[in-house]
Design a protein that fits this description.
The protein has 458 residues and is of the alpha+beta class. It folds into four domains: 90 residues, Uridine Diphospho-n-acetylenolpyruvylglucosamine Reductase, domain 2, CATH 3.30.43.10; 117 residues, Uridine Diphospho-n-acetylenolpyruvylglucosamine Reductase, domain 3, CATH 3.30.465; 107 residues, Alpha-Beta Plaits; 106 residues, Alpha-Beta Plaits. Helix content is 36%, strand content 21%. The protein contains 16 helices and 18 strands. The strands form four sheets. The protein has a seven-stranded antiparallel β-sheet, sandwiched between helices. A five-stranded antiparallel β-sheet has the order 5-6-10-8-9. A four-stranded mixed β-sheet has the order 1-2-4-3, with helices on one face. The chain starts with 5 loop residues before the first helix and ends in a 12-residue tail after the last helix. The structure holds flavin-adenine dinucleotide. Flavin-adenine dinucleotide (FAD) binds next to β3, α5, β10 and α12. Flavin-adenine dinucleotide binds next to β3, α5, β10 and α12.
Amino acid sequence: MEKFSAQQIEALKSLVAADRFSTGTSHRELHRHDFSPHWGPLPAGVIWPVSTREVSRILAWCYDQEIAVFPWGAGTSIEGNPVPTRIGLVMDFTRMDKILELRPQDLQVDVQPGVLRKTLNREAGRHGLFFPPDPGADATIGGMIANNASGVRTVKYGATRDYVMRLTVVLPAGDTIHTGCRAPKSSAGYDLTRLFVGSEGTLGIVTEATLRLTGLPAQHLSAVVTFERLEDASQAVALLIASGLEPAALELLPANLIGLLNREKELGLPEVPSLFCEFHGISDAALDETAVLAREVCMDCGATDFRSGVSAAERQQLWQARHEAAETIHRAHPGNETLIVDAAVSISRYPEMVVFAQSVVAQAQVPGYVFGHAGDGNLHVVMPGDPRNEDAWQKLEAVNRRIVTRAVELGGTCTGEHGVGIGKRQFMPLEHGGGYDLMKQIKTLIDPKNLMNPGKIF
Ligand SMILES: Cc1cc2nc3c(=O)[nH]c(=O)nc-3n(C[C@H](O)[C@H](O)[C@H](O)COP(=O)(O)OP(=O)(O)OC[C@H]3O[C@@H](n4cnc5c(N)ncnc54)[C@H](O)[C@@H]3O)c2cc1C
């Protein structure tokens, strides 16, 4: 099947309002590529449901017709996670974007999957609350749940998984289930919520979620710490965490990336290996004490400067620049895609991982930016290249493979936050062994016809 038949189009049109199903080329083109180097075939159509009931009816029809379904949030994934792998229907959640109920007294919110992270935080902020997982991109909550997204504040606040309490999920044949509950704790059986978080749309569609919120920090302290060597900066990370200072962000940046950010954002930072740090506290006095201790720890690790007391405006500018690092690298290498390493290891192994990654990039003589969410052991290497130049791209793939293999040997993972998608499938047997076979059995049990986002994870 390359296209829907006239009969199929009529059937799909009858399931939603006329303007919420399209076989138009431009709509289909917009749904075959995310932020990764992976391009899918043109989907046969795109549908925009607005309710659990509509999702259920669409999935039941697709199950009957044996049509593959590719859930789509904001399309900001980095591993081809929502990209079609065969002809099928893309289900776009951007019109299922209601905040259903915010309960400040319970620190909870019920949302539809298409709510954007920044929209949710604007609304929660009115009550002094926020939803901390922060992948930088303005992703949908459904996409964040499906990828178990995390980011710069995970070192203190955790990943998306830590904030999902209850889900409404439509299963492949159209049946609707609820997982979890709204109580702060429960011991009632298997944790199905955790099974669906991180499942990348391969088991079912999330149509509602109850999320835990947390209080906005009263005071912030940001610091820019410079070092002569990237490995010294990475050593400081483990000590800052062990010191009990509870950093809210610890980001490692190499000199070449700071150079790019300086040129694009006019940050005026010294172009040397650096740590961007943030601490949250109840008062300025408490944060002043934190700064004294953090400075001592960094200086003991060979820091050349520790500049704290960054103003609110500069803090915003720094984090904005950090969030846009991947896009800045893209813009600095026009015409290229980027292959992104997303390995993670325990904090104590982080410094050796940084040294290893740097040496692999240098040996291979490829362009590479080694940085990461150091506070949670997450290392990125962003490598620009042109996938059409097969030899050059293979070199990048080889670097990726060597770094991931080393991370797994050290007890780590092939993907700390981006998910498996298409790009990291090759590493799943290496990382999980027999556990991978059990994952396949779970997939077959829930989706026996392999219609839900096929070709991802497996
Ligand atoms: C510049 C940049 C920086 C980034 N930095 C980070 C980072 O620091 N940390 C991080 O974690 N990620 C990061 N990402 C990746 C990305 O933003 C996250 O993975 C995000 O969670 C994807 O959300 P999305 O709404 O774009 O989902 P999409 O990319 O559209 O989809 C993601 C997955 O969710 C599935 N899906 C979507 N909606 C549903 C649903 N309702 N039910 C079931 N499955 C569904 C899709 O099929 C797909 O498998 C970055 C991306 C960019 C572009």
